[in-house]
């Protein structure tokens, strides 16, 4: 078993949500095709997606934000084992308050699903001219399109918020959005015009 499979197994055994296979494969293909060099990620968890993205190309640099201290520690360890500490920097913070002057080719938003608009607004000034935002979980396990199947009130509210955000990115004339409902848990690539 390779290191990335170990991380994936750990995530599944410990109920740490990570990107689905289809989603991460799609994202890595995009990174390679578009020759992405700089990435900001919101929601590191244990470093699975940042390690996968860094491995797309040897000169990719990643800043990644994670709010939970215990996950930051595991992510840093995994990144060290993968010999990627010089290219992936884990910031222990709330992504919606992370301050940087850097501009990125790709900003991957995968933290709190109800806060996607907040993160996007916060990082509007940090995306390169031809850069993109990428969002995962826009179908939220099929519940966004079948909200009556959501069991709890909290989930119903969350699903409603994701739907509002998804409708906004798909319809706002100031955005150029490619939404892929069949990839992973629903992925979108958004360019601000
Ligand atoms: C779906 S997981 C990220 C999975 C990871 N991108 C992967 O595929 O390997 C979402 C993570 O976002 C973190 N998170 C939630 N709210 C956050 C915030 N405001 N700032 C930073 N991280 C946050 C959670 O603790 C969780 O670890």
Looking at this protein, list some descriptive labels.
Rossmann fold, SAM_O-MeTrfase, SAM-dependent_MTases_sf, globular, alpha/beta, transferase, 7 strands, binds S-adenosylmethionine, 193 residues
Overview of the molecule:
The structure is a single chain. The chain has 193 residues and is α/β, with parallel strands linked by helices. It has a single domain, classed as Rossmann fold (3-Layer(aba) Sandwich). It has six helices and seven strands. The protein has a seven-stranded mixed beta sheet, with helices on both faces. The mean pLDDT is 97. Residues 17-19, 42-43, 45, 48-49, 65-68, 71, 94-96, 110-112 line the site of S-adenosylmethionine (SAM).
* Distance between the amino and carboxyl termini: 43 Å
The CATH architecture designation is: 3-Layer(aba) Sandwich
Work out the radius of gyration: 16 Å
Biggest beta-sheet profile: 7 strands, mixed
Bound molecules: S-adenosylmethionine
Helix content: 25-40%
Number of strands: 7
Describe the global form: globular
Count of individual domains: 1
């Amino acid at each position: 078993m390779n290191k990335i499979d170990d991380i994936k197994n750990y995530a599944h055994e410990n109920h740490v949500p990570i990107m689905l296979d289809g989603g991460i494969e799609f994202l890595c293909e995009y990174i390679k095709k578009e020759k992405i060099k700089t990435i900001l990620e919101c929601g590191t968890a244990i470093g699975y997606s940042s390690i996968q993205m860094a491995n797309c190309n040897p000169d990719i640099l990643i800043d990644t934000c994670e709010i939970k201290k215990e996950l930051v520690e595991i992510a840093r360890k995994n990144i060290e084992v993968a010999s990627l500490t010089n290219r992936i920097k884990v910031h222990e913070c709330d992504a919606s308050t992370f301050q940087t002057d850097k501009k990125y080719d790709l900003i991957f938003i995968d933290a709190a699903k109800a806060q996607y608009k907040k993160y996007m607004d916060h990082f509007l000034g940090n995306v390169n001219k031809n850069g993109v935002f990428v969002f995962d979980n826009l179908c939220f396990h099929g519940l966004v399109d079948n909200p009556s199947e959501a069991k709890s009130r909290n989930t119903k509210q969350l699903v409603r918020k994701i739907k509002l955000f998804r409708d906004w990115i798909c319809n706002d004339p100031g955005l150029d959005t490619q939404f892929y409902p069949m990839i992973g848990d629903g992925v979108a690539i958004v360019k601000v015009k």
